[in-house]
Design brief:
About 70% of the residues lie in helices and about 0% in strands. It is mainly α. Helix 1 packs parallel to helix 10 and helix 7 runs antiparallel to helix 11.
Length: about 300
């Protein structure tokens, strides 16, 4: 009973942390981008303002399947928040004792699938083009994080999340070559995982006018934008959980500040890359993903062989 209460308490803390801090981090990245590009930029609270404006707007029903549109919008945020319950954020992963690495992979895939459903339900030509781009990206990108999680489980000899996290990608007294290789793969793919330039080809506003979300506005668009902010927060947290050995002081607030500092560094790197690079073409992106996928498979092979 005591363990259940603790899991529930830290689950609520993780959800509140993601919902409150993700828009703040998004606002900070927008401000940093503006500074790098010699613009004034919006205030750091602009993301909160944008979400509130969208939430109070009329929910206009358009597209081929309004029911599926509503479902996909809810699913996008629900899936990424569910992932947040399985990742340590200043404390151990709240539901680590109730889930494993396989469920984590399923939830990460589900978060991407919601965008495919959104584009399919909208039915417009722009939405379908954006959906096809999202599908191509998922087929080559999503397996990378799955391979990283499976590799960590292989090194830890367990599917338990508490064993997989905490730097399990390169455990022991030495750093295996597989760990170094998969760390490089995920580091180079992180920009794409969070959908930032130069890999935001599924949106590509200047080319296909917001892609899968072309027909969305009001509360549904707010949910998708909220999910995108949360996705950046959660994926950087997942990167830290997989590759950065956890520093535990025994005090939650201290550990939380350390975690947020590590996240801020990662998000700053992502933001600087996005602000200084032009968007890649879809064919360039797919080739880039395929190269990373081949390297990830090589890392998995090395891990299985014990290297």
């Amino acid at each position: 009973m005591k363990g259940f209460v603790a899991a529930f308490f830290y689950s609520v803390l993780n959800l509140v942390l993601v919902l409150l801090v993700a828009p703040l981090f998004d606002g900070i990245t927008r401000k940093v981008t503006a500074v790098v590009q010699s613009r004034k930029g919006p205030p750091i609270t602009q993301s909160y303002i944008d979400l509130m404006k969208l939430l109070i707007k009329e929910d206009i029903e358009v597209g081929d399947s309004p029911v599926m549109q509503r479902f996909s919008a809810l699913l996008s945020l629900a899936a990424i928040l569910s992932v947040a319950l399985l990742i340590p954020m200043g404390a151990s992963a709240p539901l680590a004792g109730y889930a494993d690495s396989i469920l984590l992979i399923y939830l990460l895939t589900l978060a991407g699938t919601s965008v495919l459903l959104a584009g399919l339900a909208a039915g417009s030509p722009y939405s379908l083009i954006g959906m096809s781009r999202e599908m191509m990206a998922m087929m080559t990108l999503e397996p990378l994080i799955a391979i990283a999680i499976i590799m960590a489980a292989t090194h830890a000899a367990s599917l338990r999340l508490d064993a997989v996290f905490g730097g399990a990608g390169y455990p022991g007294t030495h750093t295996p070559w597989s760990g170094i290789l998969i760390l490089g793969v995920i580091a180079f793919a992180l920009q794409a995982f969070v959908g930032r330039m130069p890999f935001d080809v599924t949106e590509a506003e200047t080319e296909i006018m917001e892609g899968p979300l072309m027909e969305y506005s009001g509360p549904k668009l707010a949910l998708f934008k909220y999910a995108r902010m949360a996705k950046m927060f959660v994926y950087t947290a997942l990167f830290i959980a997989l590759f950065v050995p956890r520093i535990s002081t025994g005090f939650y607030l201290t550990d939380l500040l350390v975690f947020l500092a590590e996240q801020a560094v990662l998000m700053l790197v992502v933001t600087l890359i996005a602000a200084t690079h032009a968007r890649y073409r879809i064919d360039q992106v797919v080739r880039y993903y395929i190269i990373l996928f081949i390297l990830a498979l090589l890392a998995l092979l090395l891990a299985v062989l014990g290297s």
